[in-house]
Amino acid sequence: MPSVRAPRSLISGLALIALAAFALWAVSDLSQGTMRAMGPAMLPRVVAVAIGVCGLIFVGLGFLQKGEPLPAWELRGPLIVGLGMVVFALTIRSLGFAVAAPLAMLIIGRGTTEAQPRELAIFAAAMTAFCLGLFRYLLDQPIPVLIVPGTDIAF
Amino acid sequence: MRRLLAAAALLTGFATGPAMAQDYPAKRVTLVVAFAPGGFADTFARIIGQKLGERWPQPVIVENRAGAGGNTAAKSVSTAAPDGYTILVTTTALAINQSLYKKLDYTADSLTAIAMPASSPESIATHPDKFKGGLKEFLAWAKGREVTFATAGVGSGSHLAAEYFFKVLAKTPSAHVPFRGGALAVQAALGNQVDLVSSSFGVMPHVAERKLNGLAVASATRVAAMPDVPTFAELGFAGFEAASWVGFFVPARTPSGIVTTLNRAINDIVAEPATEKQLLDVGYQLARRDAAQSGQFLKAEIEKWGVMVRAIGATVD
Amino acid sequence: MWDLVANLGFGLSVALTPTNLALCFIGCLLGTLIGVLPGIGPIATIAILLPVTFGLTPVSALIMLSGIYYGAQYGGSTASILLQIPGESSAVVTALDGHQMARQGRAGIALGIAALGSFFAGTVATLVIAALGAPLTALALVFGPAEYFSLMVMGLAFAVVLARGSILKAITMILVGILLSTIGPDITTGQGRMTFGFDWLSDGLEVAILGMGLFGIAEVFRNLEHNEARQVAHGAIGRLLPGVPELKQSAKPVLRGTVIGAMLGILPGNGAVLGPYASYALEKKIADDPRRFGHGAIEGVAGPESANNAGAQTSFIPLLTLGIPPNAVMALMVGAMTIHGIVPGPQVMTKVPDLFWGLIASMWIGNLMLLVINLPLIGIWVKLLKVPYRLLFVGIVIFCCIGVYSLNRQPVDILVLTFLAVVGYALSKFDFEPAPLTLGFVLGRMMEENLRQALIISRGSLWTFVERPISAVLLALGVALLVVAILPAIRRSREEAFQE
């Protein structure tokens, strides 16, 4: 059993092989076609196989070439920021921008350990007002401003 | 508090209430365009939207909701509140999709036609270096080869009409070359990359300038923008008519008073002399239909395109 | 020659009326503004403003709308350089070295050179349109699906050159980009591919979401790992404008970028998207020390920005001389012409010469205005970096969210953005670069469509790509580019293998 010398290559390779397999599965019910009349599955399939081959090479390199150890992950930031974005996505249409934006910003701002709650609250309020003025009124983007569920209020 | 909120809602003009024809529109009206900005439906919607906004005390906004060949917007409007504040602006695609798509999550019955005021007939043209002459000569020239024809895309009216013509009417082998949009199909013909282009108003300026050789147009009468091009009927293919139109629709069960109000408003705008001239210049044919006639027209279109779609065996899932 | 002067004089007489000057200015200003905001592109803005132009004459309307378009090209680089949030594919290239320059305290220089380069490119491109617009049209029509396919293949070869690190990784990323581009309706059958029945995937992914996720927010994730001190704003911001040495260093890249961008912009099949990538690859290839690229090389900003703006201007050629829009913005301009009762097509030049020449003249005036608008703005933009990062990143994320939402008004797009950001973060952890992926994505769809169209036209014969001279030349260039890029890498890895 050869030992893993470049874990980053190995993991990348495995991820690529998984992606390739997923793509092959996703287009499995589409027709391949001929050279004359290429079907919808032809190109995705060829590309997926090529990605799989690249993945195999990376797996091979993982055993052959010496590489760096697995990277260190710092998940706090991405998790909190991602959560804030998801909250924005879930509330923008149901509650409106005036609720979604400050709520999301208050969450996102906690993504750094240096967050200062009061400063963040002021920033979120100011940004919300600024963005509303800019996007909704100056650029006339159809963004819902405020929706109060259960009532007729919707701007 | 309630009164305060009600007053605020009234002031901003976004209060919802029962939809009555006499006080329609009481809040802003949204035109949902089924295609991206810049296309046939979008341009038309913006002209009408602007003029409606001038006539009414309420703003009219245009929202593009492109996707799935126009189905995304059609589905979304068909499930909207039937109060006349959400209006679908779409094209022939609505009629075609009823038979082209294997499964649709809405039906044309869930929509009521308001007005279908403008259309542009499909026509076919070749590059003069590839072929000069009329349709009869072209079909003779095409014997023994396979005609490559460029169109705005699979399932477009230009595609179905041309394929139906070659397969069923002319019985000439052909190969469809789909492009993303009519303009790129016209470009391919201008560059003499394909044998033929099938398109609606896109080819007209080029035919008028003799950069393309117009063979035939699929309308009852010749088109003002290219008067030299004969109709298919004149050339012995009687009854072969196909046009791409733009239409306005509201959810079914919208009060008929509102439908009538909208129908009149849109038709009146199209009939304004300046607007009318503009539309004719660009290559549209105009028709004033009341709401009932528009509904019948839609039914007839669904039927007509259904025949073509089934005849050539086109399908999308 | 005399004709050209007379025509331009006529054009200037149209463009220099107070109304048209004012509208040109408004357009440019608005364009700059929306260019800076990622996601809110010129398409949304022009579409919204179209009805406002009803009251204007067609010339005035088109002057203003065009101003928005090329104004957005100037503004587009700003967000990429300062915050690495590219809202479109051309800005991705600018982000590569531009943002590195900003991190080194050279944001002002990067913004300045982008503006100056764009102005030069815009001037040259305007002259090209005026002098050669009509004859170049004929050239553009020579490009059929086979030629476009070969052009795209050559473009993908650029992506390999573009890569900073391993060639194998770059190729992998290109392939992933192509795979992502195949999501959505198939061009010849209309079948949905890899859409899993989701409405929001039915038309594929948006490049703006890809750019903001893989670059913008992924960068935020990376930055959050470090302490405040190591983030964008170092406190010291450095000089605001490029000095003589920077100008000297940038002169030739600007010139080359202009030529590349102007040529690709003429192609009606949206060849302009390749411009910035081609320019970047060229500058990197001919540089004395290619290793500087990706670490704040000014040529990597000057060249692509010039190429981008030159292409933006010359893409008016197919619109004005053929009525064929090379991209979505130009499609909207066709709509604008139609609304104003002008039939887009070959007659525009002869039937409405005031529109044709007036618009061209206004482009040059607009470019001059943009320079005047943008140079003083640099001071303001750079001050943005003084905002503490603990707040700045919140602003970046929320702007991206709004931008993405305004694309289609679908909240699910924000979830896609979040997912792509995580992917981008993971890619950087494993030393994969997102730039080749983006190029693969941008070119992938066009490449496939043109390949299939070419094969239908050639009746299934692959020879068509070699038999057609232009296509053959482009393919040969692509292969040569690949060989030049790959050979040293192979040699290096073999040496490494021997050393072990």
What does it look like?
The complex is a heterotrimer of chains A (155), B (317) and C (500). Chain A is an all-alpha fold and 155 residues long. Chain A is 60% helix and 0% strand. Chain A has helices at 7-26, 42-64, 76-91, 97-108, 117-138. In chain A, helix 4 (97-108) packs antiparallel against helix 5. The radius of gyration of chain A is 24 Å and the shape is flat. Chain B is globular and about 65 Å long. Chain B has 317 residues and is α/β, with parallel strands linked by helices. In chain B, helix 4 packs across helix 11 and helix 6 (157-169) packs across helix 11. The chains are: A mainly alpha (155), B alpha/beta (317), C mainly alpha (500). At the A-B interface, loops of A face helix 1 of B.
Nutshell version of this structure?
The complex is a heterotrimer of chains A (155), B (317) and C (500). Chain B has 317 residues and is an alpha/beta fold. Chain B is 40% helix and 19% strand.
Q: How much helical structure, as a percent, in the residues of chain A?
A: 55-70%
The figure for the number of domains of chain B is: 2
Shape of chain B: globular
The name of the CATH topology of the largest domain in chain B is D-Maltodextrin-Binding Protein, domain 2
Task: Encode the helix/strand succession of chain B as letters.
Answer: HEHEHEHEEHEHEHEHEEHHEH
Number of helices of chain B: 11
Task: Provide the structure class of chain A.
Answer: mainly alpha
From the alpha carbons, calculate the radius of gyration of chain A and give it in angstroms. 24 Å
State the assembly state of the protein chains: heterotrimer
Low-confidence stretches of chain B: 1-19
Q: Give the ordered list of helices and strands of chain A.
A: HHHHH
Number of domains of chain A: 2
β-strand percent of chain B reads 15-25%
Q: What is the assigned CATH homologous superfamily of the largest domain in chain B?
A: Bordetella uptake gene, domain 1
- Count of separate DSSP helical elements of chain A: 5
